[in-house]
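#dry-run=false #mode=assembly
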Amino acid sequence: MINDALEAKTNAVQRRERGVDRILQILEFLQRRGEGIRIGALANALNAPRSSTYTLVNDLTEAGLLEISQEDSRIFFGKRIYLYGLSYIHENSLAKRARMEVDRLARETGETSEFCVLHNGRYTLMHMCVGNRPFRISSAVGVQIPLPWTASGRLLLAGRSRKEIVELIPPEDFVLPDGRRIEINDFLEAIEKARHDGYCLTKGLVDTVAQCLAAPIYDAVGLVEATICLVLPIDLSEGQTGMLRDRLLASSRALSSR
Amino acid sequence: MINDALEAKTNAVQRRERGVDRILQILEFLQRRGEGIRIGALANALNAPRSSTYTLVNDLTEAGLLEISQEDSRIFFGKRIYLYGLSYIHENSLAKRARMEVDRLARETGETSEFCVLHNGRYTLMHMCVGNRPFRISSAVGVQIPLPWTASGRLLLAGRSRKEIVELIPPEDFVLPDGRRIEINDFLEAIEKARHDGYCLTKGLVDTVAQCLAAPIYDAVGLVEATICLVLPIDLSEGQTGMLRDRLLASSRALSSR
DNA sequence: GACAGTTGTCTCGTATATAGTACAATTATT
DNA sequence: AATAATTGTACTATATACGAGACAACTGTC
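#status=ok
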């Protein structure tokens, strides 16, 4: 046992890895870490050889995807990758349409509307257009929220098996910020209902004074690939929510394939 | 001549290229193009072999940096690269501080403020916080504007030789949207003045009813690596602009490396 | 002031990723 | 319907990018 470990440590000839894969690892690691890291530490963290890590990071830096802080030589994402990101939101065929639709929705209804996707097992806010209510939602583009906390989360999971869902969501994601616990069975039922209804309404989950009205965006094969969603004050009349729902569903249909 | 060309075409054994470099080419090409492209066309455009282009694009797609439209199989930037981009603006050591400072500046002065860098020979708007004036500037994060059109452009070029500047800026960039032409010599003088003053004020260039007040952010070796800038209505009093300038310069100093 | 740890650069042999080619399946074009 | 062009996948050989290791220049630590 101990011998194996030692042997593994000394003799281990590291599998040769493509630069391409290493780059993807670097970028992903850098995001997950959430702050700059020096090259040596990066190589350790990925247990990649220092030599090739240097060349790759230098290449990426030269290309502008990474930047190295001059004072403490930590690595960060660079300008260029930011601009590529903006290209996603402006040009990606789905994102572009969704963004325009969300802006229109917010303009017409006056309510905060959002475009969300499933990313890394969480609800992820990709675009938001704030409404003109005096009360403001404290959300920001890029935030990632546990699926059970959101209406969109229920739709994004629609059609998946119980097993898949349970595997995808870490247990702690069933506990709301204020400590309340969401029962898995209730959650699964809500997903089923959302799937059947073609939309989902949740009240006072993340924020106790807000309700969320979400609708699916279906891809070409009929799966929910994203959602649009309205963030509303909790005290609207039946009639008001009904009208908003119809308006939202119109957008949902406009964005879905055929 | 013709023979050479023919021979080059038939016999040319393409230099083997690293996947890493190819990826950088792909991303850059995709942004410059500004819309989706199919893999075959991409390989042509880069004159890269189809086979390796396929593997690379597939790798990037699997990683989430690219997405392939299901209906017409065109390639776009993917979600993941958007989130990486957001990491730049939130975590990159300069961008993070600049962003916070710009927000503070806008809050305190009530004026629209911006964080800009030099990218691909153009002024590039990286972050903006709109003020509370009734009149709104129609600018958006990511826009790239010819350097001569902006106050920030003058500062970003400060310290460079005439030769460098002329080479960097394409001739058409000296013509404003409304047809007015900026004389190179006036421009060079303005750069020199900006460098000397440590800030730059331009009136009515891109927009005839706006003036821009820009200040440099110096890097560790004393070069202007970015600027912050206020977008103001053109009819402010001397006293008002003076106060705003002082406030702006305080931010500029706070962001610069000693 | 000696010692350990880290950083950035370089050189070298070999495992392997890339260019090339081929092929069936689509899609466009005539 | 026949022809042409394109797409996506698979298969090899060989040019080369990667891992390993060595080195000097710093940086901190006791």
